[in-house]
Design goal:
- The structure is a single chain.
- This protein is an alpha+beta fold.
- It contains 17 helices and 18 strands.
- A hairpin with a 5-residue loop joins strand 11 and strand 12.
- Helix 4 runs antiparallel to helix 5, helix 8 packs antiparallel against helix 9 and helix 8 packs parallel to helix 11.
- The radius of gyration is 24 Å and the shape is globular.
- The relative contact order is 0.14.
- The N terminus is likely disordered.
Length: about 600
């Protein structure tokens, strides 16, 4: 039982309740499409196949079968049987009986993912900074709030950090109003904003023939402006990323090379065109804190090469996508991308400084993937031969992909762009597609090996594991499009099934969707369990998910040594290692759920 609300002072009880196996049928709590896989899991100690039957709303038997024993599953701690409904096409409400237990009722219908897709997009509106969040667009009065950090004109951090480095600050201020708050805190980070906005723009670009969210289809204040609503939302973040660029000609004291734990050596650096790593509070704010009530000083933190390459990549993508829509904005993006790329080549080793209070570090010691990604995006936009040459000289261009993308591992983003953007030469495009299909094949193999039939067979569930699961879903979806093979699409469904309830906790990790939906995220405004005057999360917010590698807060630590990997999770606002929410996790939720609204 993972949903513990505000239980306090009972750490052992929490841990035991969260990880006590019980016979149960676990499945996607929003249901199934008629034309994709329809799988459920029975957790039971039985070793032989068991009969199951599917009942409709009138208690009529629709179909029957035998469970498929998988056996002991280390990731879940369960003894697992699989149930494959075999393709029930008639829309309706159903339930499964097997092993002496009965599932909750669930739906089968062509539109089961549509409400989730819309809610996942609305998450980004609700996490906007610099604008009032209005009840008319947020789903009701509980989620309306005053603008957080309006007119955010800020200068650089000046002073001594935790490691003893003295930062001299800068001689300018930037207007960085807008953008999206990153996660449970109210910082705004270029590296995490980069992959998040890229994912939204890629959803548009890979469906350019019939883009999702046409004007007026989403709950946004911009609806009706003649622009696609998905692009309207992405533009809100893209403008913020552009605003984080260091003005031309500025020289800043920055560290170069790998960092240790002591004070950093700073060197005066030509930083024009680089991107500040983040804008955030000087000190951590209390939990909860309404954005408009934030009492802390807001500051720009030092530029980094990683942030600069994120800006170069996303601004190049922006220029390509907006060129036929808004040439002025597209040109602005291309200029920013070019300056950022040149600045990163000039300063290839300015790693993100890690010793500030009040915000996350987002440190990354390997920037070869960011450089590959930015080069691929600029090449896809400009088709410049010298960029093609630069790509071909990079080891990552020929190397197999290691995994699905993440904020600190962005090589797959560049490969996706080379595989899908218009005008890429056929040989380049086909090589990129082959790399993505090969990676998808690895995920398919893991799908078969996993007890819960998901495209992730590891027993290491890291921070944000649900985001990893759905980013794998993106790779699988692209492989399905490239090859036409249904097995890849079915594995996308498996990834969605996991985050929507087909897991040993019987937990939908998405608020507002399912009979046991996430309710208490680590968030400073959606914090009803901490302050009854505040709302819980709106529908469509995804938790980071199971985490058995970093029990980083006292609440999550109550599970250490007591949980199977998939059971290391608590629905508790204090458990930020498990239950924080973030833009880079909701972005693949939006991508995958929207993909699953589309026909084969």
């Amino acid at each position: 039982m993972a949903c513990i609300g505000r239980i306090t002072g009972a750490a052992t009880l929490i841990a035991l309740l969260a990880n006590t196996p019980a016979p149960a049928i676990h499945l996607n709590q929003i249901g199934f499409r008629p034309d994709t896989s329809q799988r459920a899991i029975l957790a039971t100690s039985a070793t032989a196949p068991l009969p199951w039957r599917l009942l409709d709303a009138q208690d009529h038997v629709v179909t029957t079968g035998q469970t498929q024993p998988f056996g002991d599953d280390a990731a879940s701690g369960d003894h697992v049987h699989r149930i494959d409904l075999g393709g029930v096409h008639m829309p309706g409400t159903y339930r499964i009986e097997a092993g002496g237990v009965e599932s909750h009722p669930f739906a089968i219908g062509a539109e089961v993912y549509r409400p989730l897709s819309r809610a996942a997009l609305n998450y980004f509106y609700q996490t906007r900074a610099g604008i009032p969040i209005e009840a008319a667009f947020a789903g009701g009065k509980p989620w309306a709030r005053a603008a957080g950090h309006p007119h955010e004109v800020v200068t650089c951090f000046k002073g001594v950090d935790r490691a003893g480095t003295t930062w001299p600050g800068c001689g300018y201020s930037l207007d960085v109003t807008g953008g999206w708050y990153d996660a449970g805190d109210q910082g705004k980070y270029v590296v995490n904003g980069g992959i998040a906005v890229w994912t939204l723009l890629n959803l548009y670009e890979t469906n350019a023939a019939a883009p999702p969210f046409p004007d007026g289809s989403a709950a946004l204040p911009e609806a009706g402006n003649g622009s696609n609503d998905l692009l309207d939302e992405a533009r809100w973040e893209m403008r913020f990323l552009l605003a984080m660029q260091v003005p031309d000609g500025e020289r800043l004291a920055l560290p170069h090379g790998r960092q240790g734990d002591g004070p950093l050596h700073l060197a005066l650096t030509d930083a024009g065109g680089m991107a500040h790593h983040k804008v955030a509070d000087r000190n951590w704010t209390a939990l909860p804190t309404v954005p408009a009530d934030d009492p802390e000083e807001r500051l720009l933190y030092p530029p980094s090469t990683a942030a600069t390459l994120n800006l170069a990549a996303t601004a190049a993508q922006c220029a390509r996508i907006w060129k036929p829509i808004d040439q002025v904005f597209a040109h602005r993006c291309l200029i920013a991308a070019t300056k950022a790329y040149q600045a990163a080549l000039r300063n290839p080793d300015v790693y993100a400084a890690q010793h500030f209070n009040g915000s996350g570090g987002y440190g990354d010691d390997d920037l070869s993937d960011e450089l590959y990604w930015a080069t691929a995006e600029l090449y896809a936009t400009t088709k410049m031969p010298e960029l093609a040459d630069a790509l071909h000289r990079m080891a990552l261009h020929a190397a197999p992909l290691g995994d699905a993308p993440g904020w600190g591992s962005t090589a797959a983003l560049g490969t996706i762009t080379l595989a899908t953007a218009a005008g890429i030469p056929a040989a380049e495009r086909d090589a990129a597609r082959a790399k993505l299909v090969a990676l998808a094949d690895r995920f398919l193999a893991e799908d078969a090996r996993s007890g819960y039939h998901i495209p992730y067979a590891s027993n290491r569930y890291q921070w944000g594991s649900n985001g990893t699961m759905l980013n794998r879903g993106i790779i699988l979806a692209l492989a399905a499009r490239f090859t036409g093979k249904a097995a890849y699409r079915d594995a996308v469904v498996d990834a969605a099934d996991y985050v929507l309830g087909r897991n040993p906790l019987d937990q939908s990790y998405v608020s507002g969707f399912g009979w046991k939906a996430m309710r208490h995220p680590h968030h400073r405004f959606w914090a009803h369990s901490l302050d009854a005057r505040l709302p819980g999360p709106p529908p469509g917010v995804m938790s980071g998910g199971a985490n058995n590698t970093a029990f980083a807060d006292p609440t999550s630590a109550t599970l250490k040594g007591r949980c199977a990997p998939q059971r290391c999770w608590l629905d508790d606002a204090r458990a930020y290692a498990d239950n924080e929410v973030a833009i880079n996790w909701n972005a693949p939720l939006l991508w995958v759920s929207t993909y699953l609204t589309m026909p084969d």
